[in-house]
Amino acid sequence: MTHDHFSKLDNPAWWALTGVQQSFAAGGTVAKRYQRGILPFAAYDHTSPENLMALDEWLQPGEVFFLIGTLPFLPSHWEVIRELPCVQMVLEQPIADIPLTTPVIPLTAADRDDMFSLINKVQPGYYEPDTYRLGSYYGIRQEGQLVAIAGERVRLDGLTEISAVCTDPAYTGRGYAQLLTTRVCLHNLEQGITPYLHTLTTNERAIMIYQRLGFRQRRVINFWKLRKGAA
């Protein structure tokens, strides 16, 4: 994998929305967003800071959304709600399959509501009802209830973000997150696609688990939670 290839991870949503995931995009030539209901992420062409301004017409007053990476001057009616420094990690080596201790099932549109409920119980704000359409998701059910999940989010040419890795608090400590993350990574590595992910710099436990799986830190990158106010 070339350095130039990884450089697109400095602005992953932009390269996804102008490439592999353009069918989920709304916007113009220099600024785009994921369609409402898919993902609350937006992006702009970083070659010029002014391109950020073009996003404004694609956002509704009061809408909360995320930008990744460089944040230049903002329109005066935009508000920064939170700065989220994240470790960006990539997996460039084979990953050992983990013996199944419990069945792992591919999730489909039939699981849509259960997926949304679980992820927003554990990690609210980053997942919308149709986010599952962005890639493959896998889950574990216990007594019919979806208790753990992992899947794919921002996908660009040759690179797939591993996301929505979460477990119901009543079922943590059983290795489900590691099992599901491995399953999603293998799904990509078998196709010659490099998995990458983001986790908060403060989440030392998650970083340690991902390092054990073979991920290396590429950089620290900010996610910005923003709100558009009235113009």
* Count, helices: 5
Q: Strand fraction band?
A: 25-35%
Q: How would you describe the oligomerization state of the chains in this entry?
A: single chain
**Mean pLDDT across all residues, rounded?**
93
At the fourth CATH level, what is the homologous superfamily of the largest domain? Gcn5-related N-acetyltransferase (GNAT)
CATH class of the largest domain: Alpha Beta
Give the structural class: alpha+beta
Largest pleated sheet = 8 strands, mixed
Morphology: globular
Low-confidence residue ranges: none
Question: What would a concise description of this structure say?
Answer:
Helix content is 20%, strand content 34%.
Textual characterization of the structure:
The protein is globular, with a radius of gyration of 17 Å. It is built from 5 helices and 11 strands, in the order ααββββββαβββαβαβ. Strand 2 and strand 3 (42-44) form a beta hairpin. It has helices at 3-7, 12-17, 112-122, 176-189, 204-213, and strands at residues 25-27, 31-34, 42-44, 64-68, 78-90, 105-107, 137-142, 145-156, 159-167, 194-200, 216-228. The chain starts with a helix and ends with a strand. The mean pLDDT is 93. With 231 residues, the protein is of the alpha+beta class. It folds into 2 domains: 3-86 and 222-228, Aminopeptidase (3-Layer(aba) Sandwich), CATH 3.40.630; 89-221, 3-Layer(aba) Sandwich (Aminopeptidase). The strands form 2 sheets. It has an 8-stranded mixed beta sheet with strand order 4-11-5-10-9-8-7-6. A 3-stranded antiparallel beta sheet has the order 1-2-3.
